Description:
Elements: H1 4-57, H2 64-79, H3 83-104, H4 108-112, H5 114-149, H6 153-159, H7 172-175
Helix pairs in contact: 1-2, 1-5, 2-3
Amino acid sequence: xxxxxxxxxxxxxxxxxxxxxxxxxxxxxxxxxxxxxxxxxxxxxxxxxxxxxxxxxxxxxxxxxxxxxxxxxxxxxxxxxxxxxxxxxxxxxxxxxxxxxxxxxxxxxxxxxxxxxxxxxxxxxxxxxxxxxxxxxxxxxxxxxxxxxxxxxxxxxxxxxxxxxxxxxxxxxxxxxxxxxx
Length: 182
């Protein structure tokens, strides 16, 4: 016959495992949600780009290489899969957009065009949202990774196949100082 003490110990172990498992699952789902928020903002940006390109085309017909670069970078971002690929494609797109806005400096009429100004404003807002979403994602990844490494969670993380998640990190090019020349 099973003693009362044994039943209490088994029940306590089951409750602890249940609590740890649910806590890690909640954390994993927060990471996935944070990643989805990055995806939402990147999608928003890729949706704005065709309108921006069409607006610029009318003014900057001979700036074809810049427009092609933006289009190619947008396509790469849309095809990217996984944290590392998306980060690289996102960085490439951000660089080409900077080139596009630099080109707009050569066209005073374009700079004053209401559609261009509105699109530029929306892209700037989106860039801020992408930045915030990256930060939030990294916070959630840090919380998740810490949770699965702490005792006693680490005992169960491997058992239930919870693995460390990858941070959304800046590339080497992004870490370099920006040089501004007049």
